[in-house]
Amino acid sequence: TTVGCLLALDHLIKQGNSFLNIADIGCGTGVLAMAAANVSQANVIATDVDEVAVETAKFNFKAYGLSAKIRLVQSRGFNNLEILKRAPFDLIFANILANPLCLLAPSIAAHTKKNASIILSGILNRQANRVERYYNAHLFKRVLTRRIDQWTTIIMQRK
Length: 159
Prior knowledge:
Structural class: alpha/beta
Strand content: 25-35%
Radius of gyration: 14 Å
Distance between the termini: 25 Å
Mean pLDDT: 97
Oligomer: single chain
């Protein structure tokens, strides 16, 4: 799923998109936030609910010299003042699972700019249509779907 997100980021950049304000929701080890920080001059914030994930991401950001470029907070979705202050975003990564992605649809919609891009992953192929419908209902349209084995990554744009 991480590879799908990295390929999606590459696709967006090759299409001429540039980003100034990026969020990685459910960052895990921080790979997507690090990739975004490396290919853009954007303000990047990474969040995860799990304390171990936050500590791992913090270690990785320091090891790769990216601590100054990425703000890291422990948060469940957008339930943190730091992430709320930085919204709205022009790119959001959410590489989690289908059910949490569906639950996050209203919050992601509320914290994205018009024409912003989102990259959703952690979705089993059989769940992709359901996730897409949730985001369609929140004013997102599909840009690209990519399947790798049993996993789907979806790029969507806010209308």
